[in-house]
Amino acid sequence: MQILEFLLLIFLVLAAVMAVRFDEELISIIFLSIFSLILTSLYMLHKAADVALAEAVIGAGLNTAIFMSAISQIRHGDSD
Amino acid sequence: MMSWMNIELNLLILLPAFSAPIILILDRINEKLRKIFVILSASLSLYFVTALFFANFTDIKKGSFFLQYTFDYFGGPFIINFSMDNLSLFFSLLISMAVFLIIIYSTSYIKYNKAKYYALFFLVAASIQGSVLTADLFTMYLFIEGITVFTTPLISFKKTEKTTEAAMQYLYYGIIGGVFFFISIILIYFNLGTLKIAETALGFSEISGPMQLTIIIFFLLSLIIKLGIFPIHFWLPKAHSACPAPVSALLSGVLLKVYLYIFMRIFWTMISFDYLIELHISTFIMDLALVSSLLGHIFALQEDDFKKMLAYSSIGHIGMILAVLMLNNQAAFYGAMLHIAAHLMMKSGLFLSSGYLLRTAGSHHIDELEGIGHKNRITFGAFVIICLGTIGMPPLLGFVSKWYILLAFLKGKHFFAALVTVLGSLIALFYYLRYISKAYAEVSPELKSASWSADFAELLHFLKGDQLMSTIVYVFTLLIIFFGFSFQYFDMPVNTAIIELLNPQKYIDLVLGG
Amino acid sequence: MHKNFKNITAVVVFILMGIAFYENFQLMPAYKGLGEGVSDYIIRSGLSETGSLNLITAVLYDYRAFDSLGESTVIFGAVSGIVLILSRKMLPVSSRGLSFIVKRTLGIITPFIALFSIYVITHGHLTPGGGFQGGVIFAAISIIFSIVYGSAFDYRRYSPQMKTAFETVGALTFLGLGIAGIFMEGYFLHNLGFLTAETGTLISAGSIPYINMGVGLKVGAGLAIIFYSMIQKTFKEEI
Lengths: 80, 514, 239
Hints:
- The complex is a heterotrimer.
- Chain B is mainly α.
- Chain B has helices at about 5-30, 30-55, 55-60, 85-110, 115-135, 135-155, 160-190, 195-205, 210-225, 235-240, 245-270, 275-280, 280-300, 305-325, 330-360, 370-375, 375-390, 395-410, 415-440, 450-460, 465-485, 490-500, 505-514, and strands at about 65-70, 80-85.
- The longest helix of chain B is centred in the middle third of the chain and has 32 residues, at about 160-190.
- Chain C has one domain (about 55-240).
């Protein structure tokens, strides 16, 4: 269990760094979504099911959709 | 079990909060109905507070006035409660009065998107009342966050590039301030296991020294951002000048006072002020506030945008009030409280009149204001009177409050502070005169309105349409003149509020003793 | 050289910040600080007082229901604000959407997603979840629809006016239950005693399930409105 948590934490940091490092917005958003998923499993490991559900639904689902729509707004703005 | 006694406390917050969705529904049904409901709801909120004031008049006078409303399971620790002592009552009264007048003003000022505007405005009013009345740290954070979120769309109400930028900046700094506030709350909860202000006040001395310092610093950072004190002040003029006039009046006139109230609640009632003196933070804040005050006035002097000038002058006044609060004695509190009341009326009045005057001018720039004094003679006259009040001319309220602040500084032997106060007034005289002289500049005769008699004839229709706006400005002007002559009416509420500040133990006993 | 300097400064600042935060959190007392306060009380007597098996829901919609009301009011205000700022007059009409396979698959899955969200909302007092999470899942359905079928489909099914009506109904449900608390129990948002039933059954825990439903409606409709007003311009050019 300890090892799993440690691995997840490393991946969490990696995902966060990746989300910052990439210039392409789309990839950054995908990495943010991955970040949320890892965070969800960490919450589950700590038996915080309520928070995990909220994080999965909002962080991985809704946030990604809203970011995507914002990105597509920006791109359409460029083509104008 | 039934606690009908203090249910008003709840209603003060719930009435505007309820009004917001109802306004959105009523707007679908009938526009006239919505307009009536807006005025009704605003006047009911004002009525509740004044009724509270007059019903408990003898208690207030004795200083034993205390109401509280608890969401309670019997036997358990308190969960959430609201409480009202003399200090909160003083602020609640002032705020309700100003919000009522501003809402009446906006009924004729706002021309489009009315339903959303009023819904958001009432939500802001609810959050303001809530943050004044709450006795729980997390609820207070919630209301502060609410104020930030609800005012942001109001700032970008005009939907231009400039207003959107200002609103985004306001949101960022507001959220950052909120996060600092939240960090302090979390630290308090981890250390004491409670979020009630009274219990925190009791247990604060048990927290370890470095932790106390961390908590105090995060609270200070948060409130300095929210108050727009010097190093982090640049968002304030942008935000306060971008929005429609009634929202500017709300932000500058009312919201800054609410943050001052929260400052007092936290640093006098919850964290005893002795900690600030012990850690030498109070002198530091005082210097910072004085520098901020001076810089605010100097920035106002070189500002060519009318509303930005008013906003910079707000920075100057708030810095002065914060500095005088740091003296921590009766005379200082008296001046500060009086100036809070005075500045609330004057700044609201100035922003509201600016909204009316700028209707006739092209833009906010100083060059466009030429001859505006000839076009709206009486309203501009009122504007000049309020300006004189802000500068501190003798018969007006602004003079009285500034005089007491000056006396407090001199009594405390803070000559630099006294110098800043006087210098601020002097600079204020110059920057207002710049605008006033521009407004009375000689223009071609056809721009002038027909005659004085026509102006006075307009005065008679003071409740009709556009005249309503100028009427509200006159109301603020009359209030300033009236209280300038008879400021002793403020004596009783201010003095009883000061007693609360000087004896935090009383508040703690009353809240915890139920 | 200049870029390297910038990077190094950023790293140094981050490390210093990390050390500062670490030092600060070292100061925090161990878990015992919580053992004496409010949380201990809630763990001890939460179940008997509220009848909700899920203590988090008990805290959210009973003990600190006023704060939840405030939070959902913040969402309400944010939705009003976003609609105020982003509102445009033209209608989004794009009915292209994705391919046939995706559309069919979604058609089969959608009822189950809806069922799941209803489960999360109504079982908020028994299992993890609650009005907020379930409401977001509801909003996700609306979002998936407008991505897969094109925004016109979602618009015809549930117009923004209807979503606003849903949102207001949710808000008024929450507030109405609060007022009912005043009249029947004497306190605002107090748990309604006559609704309490045997612990663990679906309709128990007083007014908590109904508050959950109100919050679910409000959050679901509110977030759908936010997404909707954000995509409005995106599909303009595809008419």
